[in-house]
Prior knowledge:
This protein is mainly α. It is built from 3 helices and 2 strands, in the order ββααα.
Amino acid sequence: QQSVLSLESFTSERSDAFEDVDKNEPITWYPAAEFLELESHKAYSFAVPELYVDAVETDGLKFTQIVNTLTAQLERHMAKATLLISVNEKIVQFGDEVEELLRVTIGRTQLLLNKRMKQFREQLSRHLNPIPGQKITKLNDLHGLWALIDMQLEDIRLCFDKIEQCRLRSWAVPPADESSANL
């Protein structure tokens, strides 16, 4: 599929090079192969790091940092996976099994971010900024909710690990005995 943009979408720092171009004319483009070179290069990794949450030392501010870092990384991974799906067969060329893995991983990650992480952020906000008359979210509550997130995150981590194995094999699915993640 082609990506379609209009010149009007480029709102900052327009160049004089666009003066003779019809600004209402759609621009259709495919990312250059060089743009996706990092997808098969070790410079980029789909790995999701283990996050250590100490029951004694992790306070609300530390949780905020962990959640923000994790969210940003998962969103980057989802964007990369979505880009790969959109250029499949034109540039990257991987099979249906890899595409299915990418789609499943994106779905699971979106579910984590949109449901569980949203719930966690709300509770974290109640912990950091208690409102008189409302139930206070205690640090123990945050640790309990984080344990649930961590279980779901482990599944997502395994999915991204399998994507990483495929990427390192030029988008070939590793043999079943080498793969640590099953759909």
